[in-house]
Amino acid sequence: MSRLSIGYDVGRFTGTCAATGVALLPDTPCIATLSEPSDSEARPAEKTAGSAADNATAGGSAKPVGFVRRDYSIAAWDAGHRPENLFSYWRSVVPHPDAPRKLLVDDQTLLDIFLRLDGDDRDGRREFRFVLALILLRRRMLRSVGRGRDIHRDGECDVWLLQPRGAVEGAPPIRVTDPNLSEADLGTIAEQLGEVVRGDGS
Q1: Coil vs helix vs strand at 181
Q2: What is the pTM (predicted TM-score) of this model?
Q3: Closest by alpha carbon to 65, among 8, 2, 12?
Q4: Is 199 a member of any domain?
């Protein structure tokens, strides 16, 4: 697994079918999925010097992962195999191990995932949605139309106001909470999120 320093886990391409365990061979189609984690897939919060986790109970407190990545062969998918708590899925083609790294999900799928996260205020989801917003801004699927302020459960926070490409003039903007990620997080954010949508296992 790859991990942001904010403690948000994202999965990378597994290389095997989650239903059958059979290897997914290069140049073959597959289905990639993101699903909500089960209770058993919550991980202990990491302890770092001076962090709030140092004050947690013995053994660490459970912190949910963001999404669990699973991949399926087309045959298994067509036979009805699905992960529990399925959130999103997309069709792709398994790359060669030595092929250049590239995204295996198109811009529209990323936008759909971003839009589905609207209003999801669980731990880690604001950060995940913010990361998607940055990627979609870079890929010009979203555009910035201003900034604002909102009241969140943790207090007042900055909000980015965004519009999808091709939005009708005058449509209300999409509000995206700025989780105030550190410089370290911002410096590695695209690479870290990329693990959930890339096809290599490096």
Answers
A1: coil
A2: 0.64
A3: 8
A4: no
